[in-house]
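Human: If only I could read backbone structure tokens as easily as an amino acid sequence. Take your time, and here it is.
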Amino acid sequence: MEFWQFVAHALLLHSVLDVDSLSAGVWYVAIDFQLYALLVALLWLGRRAGARPVHVVTLVFLGVLASLYVFNRDPDWDDWALYFFGAYGMGALAYWFSLPRRRARRVLALGVLVLGTGLALYLDFRTRIAVALAVALLLAWGSVRGFLYHWPRSRVLARMSDISYAVFLLNFPVALVFNAVFSRFMPHTLWWQAAGMVLAWWACNAAGAAFHDRVELRLTRRR
């Protein structure tokens, strides 16, 4: 790795600076950081202006529309958060819509979101945006109804949910190791390679569980 490539990756600016990403996972982390920073910036601007919560939500909604109608329709923007903010902002809006407030306002807000996104899809249909809208509506409805907080009741699923972010962070290098080992040393037959996939999946979850227990939880307690 060249020094400039290292610096670009360390600052999570490799895609912006036109430096090849080391992996798809590294590229995603950089985009996710941009998205988080953009959302925080919108919230900060709203608070600095002394806006009420409804105005802050409106500012994020306008950012979603700007992404859906302009930036997400131009592939040249796919190294920037504005390209993906339509789907990202829907997740934030789904959460806010689920908070206790007047039912009429909640229904009206969801209706505006569906109408605005639906028109954007009519102008330029994108499957990923349609899926994001469907998931956002499901999360909003499920949160209001309450079933997402207690169904399904399973310790296994709860545990996998707890370690899911750690698994996301570590799965790529772990999977690469198993892929290299089974490609180099194991027979290229269906059953051997299927076993490699199962072992890689188990190892990814084991690594995520260890990271969650020994790093995430310890840092949380110290904080």
